[in-house]
Amino acid sequence: MALASILRRSHIILDITHAVRKVANLSYKIFGESDVDPDSPPIFLFHGLLGTKKHWESFGKTMMNMTQRIVVAVDLRNHGDSPHVNSHKYDDMAGDILKLFSKLSIEKASVVGHGMGGRASMYVSLMAEWANEQIIYFWFGKTPFVKGLCTLKSTNKKPEKISALLVVDISPVSTCVDLREQFPKIMSMMKEFSFKEQKKVKIAQREVKKKLKTLISDEILLKAILSNVTIRSTGIIGWSCNLDVLIKEFKHIITFPRLKNKIYYGPTLFIGGQLSDYLPPDDLTAIRDMFPRAVITYIPHTGHSLYADDPKSFLEVAIAFLKTND
After folding, report:
1. Contact between 112 and 106 (Cβ < 8 Å)
2. Whole-model pTM?
3. What's 180's DSSP letter?
4. In Å, how far are 94, 176, 223, 226 from 82, measured between CA atoms?
């Protein structure tokens, strides 16, 4: 009752629909903590499904040098060095990202996301414009009853937290056959692999590669998946990603939530691979219902991992957009 009273006096409305969401403390790496413009919003990079922040490292350094802005590469939940948790919805990922913003005292940021990370970036952009996210602890006596992410909606218009949105080869409107049908097979095969007899990471990766090559022809995707083979905190070789939860929650990964009346009015660029089916040109009209300033551009002769297929062209387009919208 006291909490509700305080919120009413502050002209803030409590939306209890998000009150029980658990947030994860995401792992991240910062590029350019010195020798950059401290007044410009930082750039956050989010990887795709089965990726890690390591895949963005070389791009992070280049973006930092070219834009003179801090760049932060992030492991999303259930990936890389970030915590393994029991849920993997875009609502969850957005909560984690907003918590990271709060932890780093970020008032405004540009977000760049590939695949699943692109959808997480879109969700954050749609939600951060109208909501302040805070961690709330509810106590009954000495016992914590609920620890979760709570949405506090201000009655006054607030500036957008996301200064620019760059989405790499994914649509919020449709889901391509490759993502919907191929990835469940890949994760199922990954789960079947036993590391019990493996003593060295490189040998384990070689054995995994032999099996996965029967299913994956894309060398870039194969290399990204193999980077998940690592020494776990237990000292045993295994997958760094949380396969059990990613398989269980896959239906949420391949579907972008429909957020009624949520619109991001900031600058928005979608970069697609010309040879990829992940970002159909026909989706643009529906995309602009959520992102009115959205523009789509395609990099020739590239697939879904376009930033690896043609890093020079990708960086030229991405940096030009980020420098224009800082």
Report:
1. no
2. 0.85
3. I
4. 14, 27, 20, 17
